[in-house]
Amino acid sequence: MIGYTLTPEQYEQIQGQYYAPYQFFNCVQDINGVWFLFLSDEDKPEVEASEYAWVLDLPEGEYIPPTPPPFPPIA
Amino acid sequence: MILSSHGIIASQIASFDADAVAFFTRVTTAGGTLSTTEKQAVNQLVLDLKANSLWTPMKAIYPMVGASAAACAQNLKSSSFTGTFTSGWTFASTGVTPNGTSAYMNTTVNDLNDLGANATIATYINANGSSTIGWELGVFASPAIVGMSIANGGSSNFIDIKSGISSVYSEGYVGGLFLGTTNGTTNQVYKNATNKGSNSQTTTGINLSHYIGALNQSPTVGIFGDKRTAFTCYANSTFTGTNVSNLYAAVQAFQTTLSRQV
Fold first, then answer.
1. How far apart are CA B243 and CA A4, in angstroms?
2. How far apart, in whole angstroms, are the C-alpha atoms of residue B53 and residue B41?
3. pLDDT per residue over B76-135, tens digit each?
4. Which of B29, B59, B164, B183 qualifies as a FRET site for A21, CA 20 to 30 Å off?
């Protein structure tokens, strides 16, 4: 899955910030600890119209998910 | 007389339920739009819920209509529990789809304080995704969980309402209405109107807000799901088998009107 890659500073700038009245940025880290942002086709016009339009110019990369922590045993 | 703000005529307003109209207004005020068919479907859903005494126990109903975050964030039941969406959702007339990697909706419905020990949660899934580990909704505070993961690992259906993590029945992915209801002791699990089994309640509630599209396991969010949701509701009441049958009939009729039934 392709996503936008962010520096730690860029992550701090946007994480949890609203780009539309009912939508906010949520970033996740990949297996190497790099922050990624994923935007749907519906998100992009909203982001472009916001103060965070610069996000759309961030470099993109292939996201490799981290190994998920073990989920508790099934009851 | 035409009300341009709603795009409907006076005679139609007179035939719409007041609570349905209030929802339409919330959607419009939020910047969303609804088609005439969506309004008619929502109105009938409200009427059906009320006719079967299912409206009052509801705390939040998200009909996922309007194909936008502004519209889908609105609670049909009241102006409380307006949701917010993260980045990464796809909104369509067929429902809302999280990306399975980072997307969730915060309903603000607190499992402990808003639902309590007697509760019912239901969600209508009408398209599969590629994830085999994702959770469609819920809150988690080990070892207790209130959540749903459909066809986990390909076949295990976890519909756990205030219990430990337990797959009550196994079935490969088949869309429909997934419901869990608990009475303070036992959690009954339903797929459409069919009882699929039960597990034991182990907690009166988890003090976290319910997420759709992932598990709220504050301080983290995890195990993101990617199945398409076309309806989700939360009630602070135990549903009987009759209640479940009536809810399924109402929701299925709603989905059929919108041509997105499974």
1. 46
2. 18
3. 999 999 999 999 999 999 999 999 999 999 999 999 999 999 999 999 999 999 999 999
4. B59
Cα separation, B98 vs A68, in Å, equals: 18
- Best of B64, B86, B87, B91 to substitute, by most chain A Cβ atoms within 10 angstroms, is B87
Q: Where are the alpha helices (DSSP H) in chain B?
A: 10-15, 18-30, 36-51, 69-72, 241-257
Tell me if A43 and B89 make a contact (CB, 8 A cut-off).
yes
CA–CA dist B201, B185 (Å, integer): 5
Residue environment code for B237-259, b if the CB has 16+ CB neighbours within 10 A, otherwise e? bbbeeebbbbbbebbbebbebbe
Do A26 and B104 lie within an 8 Å CB cutoff? Answer: yes
Give the closest of B85, B99, B142 to A23, CB-based. Answer: B85
Say whether A38 and B102 touch across the interface (CB within 8 A): yes
Question: Rounded to the nearest 5°, which phi and psi values hold at B242?
Answer: -65, -45
Strand-pair category, B215-217 with B58-62:
unpaired
CA atoms of B177 and B160, how far apart (whole Å): 15
ipTM reported for the complex, 2 dp: 0.95
Q: A8: part of which helix (H) or strand (E)?
A: helix A8-14
**Ramachandran angles phi, psi of A46, nearest 5°:** -65, -45
One DSSP character per residue, B26-59 reads HHHHHT----HHHHHHHHHHHHHHHHTT-STTEE
Instruction: Taking residues B8-14, report their average pLDDT.
Output: 52
B165 touches chain A (CB under 8 A): yes
Mapped onto helix, strand or coil, the DSSP state of residue B16 is coil
Residues of chain A with C-beta less than 8 angstroms from the C-beta of B166: 74-75
Model confidence, pTM: 0.94
Task: Answer yes or no: do A24 and B91 touch at CB < 8 A.
Answer: no
- Residue A68's pLDDT band (boundaries 50, 70, 90)? confident
